[in-house]
């Protein structure tokens, strides 16, 4: 396990306990160690890269695509990685929407850190990225994920049978969504001391 960073990370936005920032190549060792520690927690709900090679491919795909952007959720006291929130399938033009994918690592689960990080990402998406709508597709049995989006103010929109192929089977999902006009942030966005914001579409 890599040692926590001793200097502040260049966060895109900060809350009381966490900041969000892009993935970096040097995050590979810490991220993959946390992913391996979290196999039981993640179960069939999600998969995260567990090797350095897989991480580099994963992070590179996020950085190299105009339709995806990824954020690490890091604890501000030590810079450690608590989880991640990605915006996938970004469609611009008349849609201005994206689909969320996210996960907390085992050491950070149940502490509200991902909830705070998700709030920062949603504010960043509706502000700096100029999106109008975000949705999250969640398996019906994933109670922790359903509770997360409910707390964030997402509304239930529908049920999609056999929506995604995960862990060897087609899985049903519920669709939850929120739009920029209806979103109510949990914490005011703080960017005054952060590094310049990055638009993945520039």
TrEMBL record:
Gene3D superfamilies: 3.40.630.30. It comes from the Bacteria. Keywords: Acyltransferase, Transferase. Belongs to the acetyltransferase family. RimJ subfamily. InterPro entries: Acyl_CoA_acyltransferase, GNAT_dom, N-acetyltransferase. Coiled coil: none annotated. Residues 18-181 form the N-acetyltransferase domain. This is GNAT family protein. Pfam families: Acetyltransf_3. PANTHER family: [RIBOSOMAL PROTEIN US5]-ALANINE N-ACETYLTRANSFERASE, GNAT FAMILY, PUTATIVE (AFU_ORTHOLOGUE AFUA_3G00765)-RELATED-RELATED. The keyword Acyltransferase applies. SUPFAM superfamilies: Acyl-CoA N-acyltransferases (Nat). The keyword Nucleotide-binding does not apply. Residues 182-202 are annotated as: Disordered.
């Amino acid at each position: 396990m890599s040692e926590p960073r001793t200097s502040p990370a260049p966060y895109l936005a900060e809350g009381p306990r966490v900041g969000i920032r892009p993935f970096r190549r040097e995050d590979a060792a810490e991220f993959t160690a946390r992913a391996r520690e979290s196999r039981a927690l993640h179960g069939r709900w999600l998969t995260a890269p567990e090797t350095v090679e897989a991480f580099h491919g994963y992070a590179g795909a996020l950085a190299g695509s105009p339709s995806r952007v990824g954020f690490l959720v890091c604890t501000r006291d030590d810079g450690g990685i608590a989880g991640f929130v990605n915006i996938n399938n970004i469609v611009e033009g008349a849609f201005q929407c994206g689909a969320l994918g996210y996960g907390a690592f085992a050491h950070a689960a149940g502490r509200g850190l991902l909830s705070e990080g998700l709030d920062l990402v949603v504010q960043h998406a509706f502000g700096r990225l100029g999106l109008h709508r975000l949705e999250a597709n969640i398996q019906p049995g994933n109670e922790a994920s359903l509770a997360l989006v409910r707390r964030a103010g997402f509304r239930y929109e529908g049920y999609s049978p056999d929506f995604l192929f995960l862990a060897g089977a087609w899985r049903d999902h519920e669709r939850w969504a929120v739009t920029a006009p209806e979103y109510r942030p949990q914490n005011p966005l703080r960017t005054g001391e952060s590094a310049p914001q990055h638009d993945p579409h520039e």
